[in-house]
Structure formats: structure tokens, C-alpha cells
Structure to design on (274 residues):
């Protein structure tokens, strides 16, 4: 029943072509890993249209994910992107395993477990890797060193131990402006919580179903995100956000044609039927 979850990539070379990279040679370094992460976040978008718009069941088998994302030139959400990315890293010889996570994004009331990320063994220690968050997580691997600030492409992140199994990833947000346009101090907020307990790919099958049902964020809201060298593109419902060099522009998407055009121009794919 779950055999397809553990299959190898059908064509790793095609995956590398999609990322615009050559396969790195052994011995593999942190720089190699970080370069692959950034390329993935910049070339393959987070998007949930199969869940939100088309109401298609999300298949997590490696052949299905490869066909959709690499061959079909689409993106996906965390259970798709991080599953496929884990298979790519495994094909290189990295020791990898999935981890249960909770997206927090600064919220005071926490959601149930709703996210999948990847743990990669690097120089004898595990680091966090995530190409499927669809938001403000690191563009490189994050070391799980309690309380140590890590600056990644100008952003500040800190891994913080909660207990024997759970860790938090905190990020220093940019300065905010109040109603009068006065800029206040930046602040630290928790973006993600992750669990180090051992899980396997089939443990995410039911979680994928739960996170794609009506009433969830993924089912009820259109979401897309793609990193750029100096910012990102993002869609939330009917608004496109373009961030470049610290400045944001919000562009309304008034109809389906405008939405489809934005997907094609900024995220590299056109929704089926649009």
C-alpha cells in the first residue's frame, strides 16, 4: 500500500536540470546542501492549487510527485515538496529523515501538527532543511544549536530547545510601522516548531489528508510563494505580493484571468484550464 512512498527518483538528472544545477560531487559539504536548498526555493514554488482550487487528492508517492512537479512544471505544498526533496538528497548519499512540524508564524494560539520538514545529517549532527514552508524560513540549512543566532542571507534565525524532543525556530522580523508611519523595533517571533522523534514517510499520509480537508488554511486559501535573489513573490487569495530589496508591492488579482497570468509570470506555471 505504501511502497510508492519509498521508491527512488525516476530521473535525478531531470531534477537537477529543473534546479539549474549540476549534481555535486562527493564529499558533500554544507555549502553544497545550502546551494541546493536555495535553488529549490527559487525554482520550484510552494503552491496549493490542487488542494484549494481543483480539490484533487494529493498523492505522496515519489513517481506521482516527480510527474507533477518536475515533469508537469508545478509546485506543491510541504508534504509534496519536502518529500521529493528528501528523495533527491538521499540519491546524493545524504542521511536524511522526515520530521513532524507545526507552523506557528508568530501565532499565540498554536495549530495542530501540520507540516513536514527534513532532517539531514551533516558532519555528525542533524540540521533542519525545508523547501516547502511557503513563508519565512531559512534559505539554507539550520543547525540545531540551542540559542545560537544564525545569520542566513541577512536574516536572523535561532533554534531553541523546548524539551527533549521539540525545538522552535525563531526569526527576527523586520521593523514595523504603526498607524502613524513611525517605525518601531524589530522583534523575534517563532515561525516553526519541530519534533526530533523518529517517524517514517507513511506517518504523513493521514496528516496530508487532514491538512487538505475543508476548513483548513490549505483548502480554503490560495497560497503561493517563490524566493527570488533579492526578495520573493507570494499570493494569498486574490493579492500578489512582490518583495524586492526590502520594498513590498501588493497587486490585486481581480479575476481568474489575472490570477492565471500572475501564476505564469511570477511562478512559472499556468493553472490547468486557465
Amino acid at each position: 500500500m505504501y511502497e510508492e512512498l519509498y521508491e527512488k527518483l525516476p530521473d535525478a538528472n531531470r531534477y537537477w536540470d529543473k534546479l539549474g544545477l549540476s549534481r555535486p560531487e562527493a564529499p558533500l559539504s554544507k555549502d553544497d546542501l545550502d546551494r541546493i536548498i536555495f535553488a529549490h526555493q527559487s525554482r520550484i514554488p510552494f503552491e496549493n492549487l490542487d488542494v484549494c482550487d481543483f480539490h484533487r487528492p494529493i498523492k505522496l508517492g515519489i513517481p506521482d510527485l516527480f510527474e507533477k512537479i518536475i515533469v508537469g512544471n508545478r509546485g506543491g505544498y510541504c508534504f509534496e515538496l519536502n518529500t521529493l526533496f528528501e528523495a533527491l538528497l538521499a540519491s546524493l548519499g545524504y542521511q536524511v529523515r522526515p520530521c513532524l512540524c507545526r507552523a506557528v508564524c508568530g501565532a499565540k494560539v498554536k495549530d495542530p501538527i501540520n507540516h513536514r520538514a527534513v532532517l539531514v545529517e551533516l558532519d555528525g549532527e542533524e540540521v533542519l532543511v525545508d523547501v516547502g514552508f511557503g513563508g519565512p524560513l531559512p534559505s539554507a540549512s539550520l543547525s540545531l544549536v540551542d540559542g545560537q543566532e544564525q545569520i542566513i542571507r541577512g536574516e536572523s534565525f535561532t533554534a531553541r530547545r523546548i524539551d527533549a524532543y521539540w525545538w522552535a525556530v525563531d526569526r527576527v522580523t523586520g521593523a514595523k510601522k504603526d498607524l502613524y508611519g513611525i517605525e518601531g523595533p524589530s522583534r523575534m517571533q517563532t515561525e516553526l516548531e519541530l519534533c526530533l522523534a523518529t517517524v517514517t514517510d507513511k506517518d504523513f499520509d493521514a496528516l496530508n489528508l487532514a491538512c487538505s480537508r475543508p476548513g483548513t488554511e490549505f483548502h480554503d486559501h490560495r497560497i503561493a510563494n517563490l524566493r527570488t535573489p533579492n526578495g520573493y513573490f507570494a499570493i494569498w487569495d486574490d493579492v500578489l505580493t512582490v518583495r524586492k530589496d526590502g520594498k513590498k508591492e501588493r497587486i490585486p488579482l481581480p479575476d481568474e484571468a489575472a490570477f492565471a497570468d500572475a501564476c505564469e509570470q511570477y511562478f512559472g506555471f499556468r493553472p490547468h484550464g486557465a
Q: What stands out?
A: Residues 177-183 have pLDDT under 50 and may be disordered. DSSP finds eight helices and 13 strands in the chain.
